[in-house]
Amino acid sequence: MMKLLKAMVALMLALGFTANASAGHATLDEAKAMVKKARAYIRENGMEKALPEISNPKGQFVDGEVYVFVNDKAGVNIAHGGNPRLIGKNLMELRDTDGVYMTKEMFAVARKGGGTVKYRFLNPVSKAIEPKMSYVEMEGDYLVGSGIFVGK
Questions:
Q1: How many of the other CB atoms lie within 10 Å of CB of 73?
Q2: What is the rounded CA–CA span in Å between residue 8 and residue 53?
Q3: Within-domain flag for 4
Q4: pLDDT tens-digit series, residues 98-149
Q5: Which of 24, 89, 132, 133 has the CA that lies 20 to 30 A from 104?
Q6: What is the three-class DSSP state of 147?
Q7: pTM for the full predicted model
Q8: 3-state secondary structure at position 99
């Protein structure tokens, strides 16, 4: 019986380590694909239908730590798959722990055709502030982005 218990604990630990090892290894290509998918969904379904789907933590625009966010042209967050408490908040003046104006930089990059912005943000999986790189594009007057956490 003790041998079986030890084997089960070893298996659970191995599975736990495997899950943790694969968590957080999302790629920038996955984030970029998520942005393109969200933009297509917005165009096909309109903002009224798209925003709740983008903010749905169990929806198609959330995959672990990779999720989509949308801000209006004033910087107000109108959809967020990783932290619904940000919805309705103006994030234009929000700075990370290094002083980076994340949203301002995202708009500057997105208005030039899209690209990446590096900053520090709360990882919804680890619950820690970690370095993040987001890919952003404009969809009309709206900023659409998704990012990956790039380690500590």
A1: 13
A2: 39
A3: no
A4: 999 999 999 999 999 999 999 998 887 888 899 999 999 999 999 999 999 8
A5: 24
A6: strand
A7: 0.81
A8: coil
